[in-house]
Amino acid sequence: MSQVKRLIIAFLFNVFFVATAFSQGSDALDIYVQAEKYRQAKNYKAAIEEYNKAIQKDPKNHKFVFQKAKCYLAIGDKDNALNCFAKTAELNEKYVDAYTWQANLYQERKDIPNTILNLDKAFQFETDQKKKVEYKVDIIKLLYKSGKFDATWEHIQDAKSQDENDLRVLYFEAHFANRNEKYHLAQVDMEKAITLLDSKDPKEISKYYYELGYAYHHLEEYQKAKETFAKANYGPFKGLILELGPQFNYSVAYAFYQIYDLKRSLELVDYTLKIDPHYSAAHDLKVRIAEAFIDKSAIIDQTKSALSSQQGNEKWIAAKYFEMAEIELQAGKYGDAIASIEECLKLEPHNYNATFILAVSKYKSSLKDEAKDLLANAVTSHGVDHETKAKFHFTLGQIYKDLDDKKMAEEAFKAAHFGLFKYAAMKEIKSLKNEVNVVSDDSGEITKVEEETEF
């Protein structure tokens, strides 16, 4: 065959191929138009049949598959809709709507990982900056709701790269920064945020002032924190602000003093006085703790001498053994404290304060099971007042916590939620749950492409 004939055949083949492809494309478009008419008339099954014919003619046209997915969605066939949206993204990875629809369907199924995966894809290919921010805000909310707080940082930075003045993003970054001891960053974010607020409604603005006050507090700028917290003292923030104040921390310090945890009590007293150097009750408690640390060996020796010469006056003897046991407990002489308080209990078996001294001494001697049993029995006894029961339950909570029994510890702390131990029990329960405080004003549901998120 001559070279000329070969060229002619090749040319004719190309013409035939292009003509055929054009004919198929034209046919596919005609079928697609008919499918759209059916879809607009809500005859979805007929539309799906026509879309299938169009796809057969032009299998790489992502638009055909996407519209077919919407028909499946309209008749409630979400499995096929999801498959078609996924196929759309496979045919055209830059088609953002395919990802947002998948995200919505996966969220309905509570499949958070796939929801986030598709929102991330939408962010990757979206060209509208505002929408990109919305996708990341949706991801951050989902991670919060899933308890995956630590995974939000990367998404916060992605959102901030699109709009560094978005109030929601500034709040999320400040919240993350505060919980990761990046207080200066939180301060900068929230000082900026409050200049952007266009509302004075405490329901809307409290969270920004709370995060700023929280940052000031941990930067030891306590006066600034106090002034800022005054603007955040609303709704759920009232309790959070209370926890950072001198009254709360003094109360917790006093609770630990009551159960003979002097070291922890002193730490909390010092913290209280850093917040408010003029808090007189904290100064008084610090004096009492200092007195407890004074060497009282001479007093113990004198008491023992007095006891050896006394007989008959059981009430006086029991009181002296109690005093001596308390001194020995405070001095860390737990074995001696156990021996002394057992002598007291021989004379006064229903002295519940003595039982408490015995339980604490055993607890500090690492006899935790014995201490636990003593207190568990004591709290069920008749005649024990509510305040004393709260003290017993609070100590039980500490023992269960040391035994790594979080369930029983939480139950004990809940039972201790009374009087002087109320705030201390609250703090312990929160630490057991390892709670992260974040406040959102909406439901946390993700939004479709055309909708704007409120936060």
TrEMBL record:
Signal peptide location: 1-21
Alphabetical keyword list: Repeat, Signal, TPR repeat
Acyltransferase among keywords: no
InterPro entries the UniProt entry points to: TPR-like_helical_dom_sf (IPR011990), TPR_rpt (IPR019734), Ycf3 (IPR050498)
Gene3D superfamilies associated with the record: Tetratricopeptide repeat domain
SUPFAM superfamilies cross-referenced by the UniProt entry: TPR-like
Keyword Metal-binding: no
TPR repeat segments: 28-61, 318-351
Protein name: Tetratricopeptide repeat protein
Organism: Rapidithrix thailandica
